[in-house]
Amino acid sequence: MAAAEAAVVSSSPLETDTALVPETAGTAAATAATSSATAAVAAVAAAARTGSEARVSKAALATKLLSLSGVFAVHKPKGPTSAELLNRLKEKLLAEAGMPSPEWTKRKKQTLKIGHGGTLDSAARGVLVVGIGRGTKMLTSMLSGSKRYIAIGELGKATDTLDSTGKVTEEKPYDKITQEDIEGILQKFTGNIMQVPPLYSALKKDGQRLSTLMKRGEVVEAKPARPVTVYSLSLQKFQPPFFTLDVECGGGFYIRSLVSDIGKELSSCANVLELTRTKQGPFTLEEHALPEDKWTIDDIAQSLEHCSSLLPAELALKKSKPEESNEQVLSCEYITLSETKGEDDVIKTS
């Protein structure tokens, strides 16, 4: 029997191999399925960890954003209004911090306060000073200081807006005007002078901007001349019909009115072709104005730290304390977007 059994076993290697093949395949399939399931579980766990880490990261950014407080500067390009640029800045910061988010709608209300001081025309570029947090309260007092501009004027053409964006309303000869003629009249526009603001301006009548009323075609009377200060005024270049001015002035001064008045004083007319604000308060375009690719929470935090040394001691802000809990931070679903108007050149958005 043993021999027979041995014969069977030894004589059936093919049968034995054949029987083992499906068992091995089944085991491999089961192993593969188990490995796939394990990988799937690991992937889900990793995704959960990543999502959790992302939420923690966003919460940390939200905390940092709401703790920012002070004054810094951004570079405004030609095109958007100062208010539009401010909204773009705020949207980028909120998006980076993941705020607001639908999952936070039941959280306690928090407000991101941000504003700008010193309206810059949409056709102009340059330094725009921004206040964030408690820094919005500093704008009016700090920005009553000087501003500096490089303006390129065009002789021989007057426009309704006093710059190149408007309709030409008058043309006069300029061919006899010399560099000496321009330099000779600049002293009349230096020091404490009276200036009539442009009709297209942020100044208001009955609660509405004059520029808005003008665009509607409504009849608007010019505002009376008001006192302004020009600290320095020089001619940098003259290549008819274009002339370039370097102007340092106080608050409430309009470069467009200056260029127009210079044209009239020369028995011609003129409008602003290009305008760049190179300095506002202690902030300069080259050193302090953040370009749009630097509008991040970390970059602004660094800029606030750097710029705090530029402010007068009485206006310098102490570092804000971080929020006490994430519950307060994750509550920015109800951020208020309304604008309130303070003085002529200060807009705050909370």
Automatic annotation (TrEMBL):
InterPro entries: PsdUridine_synth_cat_dom_sf, PsdUridine_synth_N, tRNA_psdUridine_synth_TruB. One of its GO terms (molecular function) is pre-miRNA binding. GO terms for cellular component: cytosol; nucleus. SUPFAM superfamilies: Pseudouridine synthase. Its EC number is 5.4.99.25. It comes from the Eukaryota. It is found in: Cytoplasm, Cytosol; Nucleus. Its main location: cytoplasm. One of its GO terms (biological process) is mRNA pseudouridine synthesis. Keywords: Acetylation, Cytoplasm, Isomerase, mRNA processing, Nucleus, tRNA processing. The keyword Cytoplasm applies. It catalyses: a uridine in tRNA = a pseudouridine in tRNA; uridine(55) in tRNA = pseudouridine(55) in tRNA; a uridine in mRNA = a pseudouridine in mRNA. Residues 106-255 form the Pseudouridine synthase II N-terminal domain. Pfam families: TruB_N. Pseudouridine synthase that catalyzes pseudouridylation of mRNAs and tRNAs. Mediates pseudouridylation of mRNAs with the consensus sequence 5'-GUUCNANNC-3', harboring a stem-loop structure. Constitutes the major pseudouridine synthase acting on mRNAs. Also catalyzes pseudouridylation of some tRNAs, including synthesis of pseudouridine(55) from uracil-55, in the psi GC loop of a subset of tRNAs. Promotes the processing of pri-let-7 microRNAs (pri-miRNAs) independently of its RNA pseudouridylate synthase activity. NCBIfam families: TruB. HAMAP family: TruB_bact (MF_01080). Belongs to the pseudouridine synthase TruB family. This is Pseudouridylate synthase TRUB1. It comes from Ursus americanus (American black bear). The lineage of its organism: Eukaryota, Metazoa, Chordata, Craniata, Vertebrata.
